[in-house]
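Researcher: I'm preparing a figure for a lab meeting and need a structural model of a single chain. I don't have an experimental structure, so a prediction will have to do for now. The sequence is pasted below. Please return the structure as tokens so I can convert it later.
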Amino acid sequence: MGIKMSKTTQHSWSKTILEFGPILIFFLAYKFAPIPPEFEGDKGLEQIIFATKIFIPVIFLSLLIGWLQTKEIAKMPLFSAIIILIFGGLTIWLRDETFIKMKPTILYLLFALLLGLGLFRGRSYLETLMGNALPMSEVGWLIMTRRFTIFFIFLAILNECVWRWFSTDFWVSFKTFGLPVLLLVFFFSQARLIQKHVSENNKE
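Model: Understood. Here is the structure written out token by token.
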């Protein structure tokens, strides 16, 4: 007999594919961009432009598929898609890879700014986004929000260092694999905080 996945598991896998699929497609489009061997210009720039042209419609297609599945659009992926559209569009229009390389920097700084504004008001915007999945106490959410704010600033600085000091090939690999891995490692490193501040009603 075959093993049937629950709807929750199927949704989790689908969400993961929709979130990381476009990033992987960007990487593959960059690596396999149809640049003629005899091309004498800036090959890396042409690869970035080609990958960006593929990436923008794919990211919005993933949002559409997510909406068709759940009838709602998550705020953070939509916000990210808008930033990608702006900076990716500038990269294609001005033929300048700086814009797409700076996109993670701008995105992480904006995330940090939004979370920081929430903290200034005594609120955790992370709780608004993730409260249903992680039923923590208010104190726990405020601590995690402070940590994520600092971590997003760190990622913004790290991205700036990588694209300025290393090759385009290295940056593309870092963006595709390095940044998601760092986010996952950081999130799982908060396990003790989550366990300590999980709401009393949901401990079991």
